[in-house]
Amino acid sequence: MTSTAIIHLDMDAFYASVEQRDFPDLRGKPVIVGGHPRRGVVLAASYEVRPFGVRSAMPMVVAMRKAPAAIVVPPRMAAYEEASEAVFAILSTVTPLIEPLSLDEAFLDVTASRKLFGGPAKIAAELRARIATEVGLPSSAGIASVKFVAKIASDVAKPNGQLEVAPGEARAFLAPLPVARLWGVGPKTEAVLGKLGLRTVGDIAAAEPDWLNRHVSGGRDLWELSCGIDPRKVVPDREAKSIGAEDTFDEDVAGTEALLPHVHAQALRVARRLRMAGRKTIVVQLKLKLADFTLLTRRTTLAEPTDDGQTLYRAASALLLNEHLPRKVRLTGVSAQSLLSHDGQLSLFDSDRRAGRLNAALDRIHDKFGPAALTTADLHETPDKERG
């Protein structure tokens, strides 16, 4: 029986790599993509800054203490989304069985692709070469017969490498790794395992599974993973329940009028993502996080489904203007809820058809020239990350 072939492809320091690609003066330098220096977090750390101990999700205050000479750049989500679209377009040329995990990471089932494209290692190498040439970004890949092992293999292969774990070799490959590499093992579980004398994945694989299950929560699951057992399949095109866009401001913003351009930009981003996904929405939700971290969500139901940014903006702005804001705002977000398939039915109204033609033209301009090529007057001074 032919074994399953799964590739886990992961972009290397994705946001930071996009910044170094787009701004050559950043290449070879320690770069942090992050938010506010006092309250933000590290979104991405280039490989040049990682020897200082800087990692993703680390508070910016800690990161700057570890690497005071690092170059900090604000995130440009539109640029990262554009790069992600290009990467996934390349991945889709070899298999439809793609399970996205984030903008920069996916599982691919290439079992049936081998007849056309060769072995999985060849497929992974060619995908990575195309991504490097066509998108200008480095990536790493792990190849195995199960998802968990493929994921660990891509981690080991980083940066800019790939590693194949042949069928039957998973247990030996995993054995020397620390137990913390297993999914579900955090600091508390790691401490429990340590008290039991289990410090490597191989130690867990050698344990009796029922004994392990009695002493550790989820012990049998850990034993199966340590043996390279992972029955999960690659699940393509998981149905999204909502599509949204939100931004945390570097400085808290006061007043609804100052917030409207941000909400407008977010509504346009959501609409474009709806059209890319072939979906429409009938429920628009506005999200506000106040300076004291109070979270407000307001929603409204539209008269008919839409994927038009101006319609979304009118709905979201009405929600905002109806809201009394007792203090400054640190985050706004717009999301489309209750998504519907785009059935292509013609509207009865000329204005709707005109909006559809305009949106199609805007999407073509966006695709060809980037998100900043054409925008509305109130967004002219809005950062690129909000215009996409």
Give the amount of beta strand, in percent: 15-25%
Please provide the count of β strands.
12
The low-confidence parts are 343-351, 369-375, 378-388
Q: What's the CATH class of the domain at 242-387, please?
A: Alpha Beta
Q: CATH topology of the domain at 242-387, what is it called? A: Dna Ligase, domain 1
CATH architecture descriptor name of the domain at 242-387? 2-Layer Sandwich
Structural class: alpha+beta
The main sheet orders its strands as: 5-6-1-7-8
Overview of the structural elements:
The longest helix has 22 residues, at 256-277. This protein has a 5-stranded mixed β-sheet. It is globular, with a radius of gyration of 23 Å. Mean pLDDT is 86; it is low at 343-351, 369-375 and 378-388. It is built from 15 helices and 12 strands. Among the domains are: 14-77, MutS, DNA mismatch repair protein, domain I; 171-226, DNA polymerase, domain 1 (Orthogonal Bundle); 242-387, DNA polymerase, Y-family, little finger domain (Dna Ligase, domain 1, 2-Layer Sandwich), CATH 3.30.1490. By secondary structure, it is an alpha+beta fold.
Task: Provide keyphrases for this structure.
single chain, 388 residues, alpha+beta, MutS, DNA mismatch repair protein, domain I, DNA polymerase, domain 1, Dna Ligase, domain 1, five-stranded mixed β-sheet, four-stranded antiparallel β-sheet, 15 helices, 22% strand, globular, disordered C terminus
